[in-house]
Structures are given as structure tokens and as C-alpha cells.
Design brief:
Strand order of the largest sheet: 3-2-5-4
Strand content: 35-45%
CATH topology: Hypothetical Protein Aq_1857, Chain: A
Structural class: mainly beta
Helix content: 10-25%
Order of helices and strands: EHEEEEHEEEE
Shape: globular
Radius of gyration: 14 Å
Number of helices: 2
Number of domains: 1
CATH class: Mainly Beta
CATH superfamily: HesB-like domain
Largest sheet: 4 strands, mixed
Distance between the termini: 15 Å
Length: 124
């Protein structure tokens, strides 16, 4: 589901990068791509409708970007972002944390206005 068009767009400057991957995220994505024999694939970073606050993050691997996608590269890891999601993701940082409880990708998004109690969905 695409973001609603009546949402207030982000106030971050247009020259702020849409996304940044931490070193930990880069290392983990490279490991996953190697383990799954997905050489040349990239990471899709986007939004989908759902959860109690409106949106959830969508992370997955794709062989190539769509023609209209923004494509970013971090130490050989390609990240594909649908242009309809850019204003809601601009300035986001994707990290990977290997913790006893809650290991996985964690996203810091400066555009989030509120999130649900369980922390899995948000509104922008």
C-alpha cells in the first residue's frame, strides 16, 4: 500500500540522504546475500500500510531496482527506494543489532510523528 497523499510531508531538507546503512547493517546484509547465494541483489527499503499506527517498514531483497527507484549504495550494498516513499523515509538510518532479545534490523526515522505501543508500526 502506498502512503496516503494527504499526509504532511517531511520538513527535512531535500538534500538529506533518503537512507543510511550503519556498518553493522552493511555487514549483515552482505552475509545474508552470500548465505542465500543472491549475488548482485539489493535491499528494498520501503513502507507498507498496516499495524495500529498506519505504516510498517518493508525490507526485502530484490534482484534489481524498478526504473523509477532511487538507488543508493553503501560499500557494495545497493538499496532501492520507491520515490513515493522518499518523503517519509528521508533521513532514516538502518542498523542491525545482534542482541539477546530483539536481534534484527532497527530503523531510526526522523519523520515518525507517533508509533504504536508495541513499536512495530508508526505514523508520519
Amino acid at each position: 500500500m502506498e502512503p496516503a497523499t494527504d499526509l504532511v510531508p517531511t520538513t527535512l531538507a531535500a538534500d538529506v540522504a533518503t537512507v543510511r546503512l550503519t556498518d553493522s547493517a552493511i555487514t549483515h546484509v552482505k552475509r545474508l546475500l552470500t548465505e542465500n547465494q543472491m549475488d548482485g541483489y539489493g535491499l528494498r527499503f520501503g513502507l507498507q500500510g498496516g499495524g495500529c499506527s498506519g505504516y510498517t517498514y518493508d525490507l526485502g531483497f530484490e534482484e534489481s531496482p524498478q526504473p523509477e527507484d532511487e538507488v543508493h549504495e553503501f560499500d557494495g550494498v545497493k538499496v532501492f527506494v520507491n520515490p513515493l516513499h522518499v518523503q517519509y523515509l528521508r533521513g532514516s538510518e538502518v542498523d542491525y543489532r545482534d542482541e539477546l532479545i530483539g536481534a534484527g534490523f532497527h530503523i531510526e526515522n526522523p519523520n515518525v510523528k507517533r508509533s504504536c505501543g508495541c513499536g512495530t508500526s508508526f505514523d508520519v
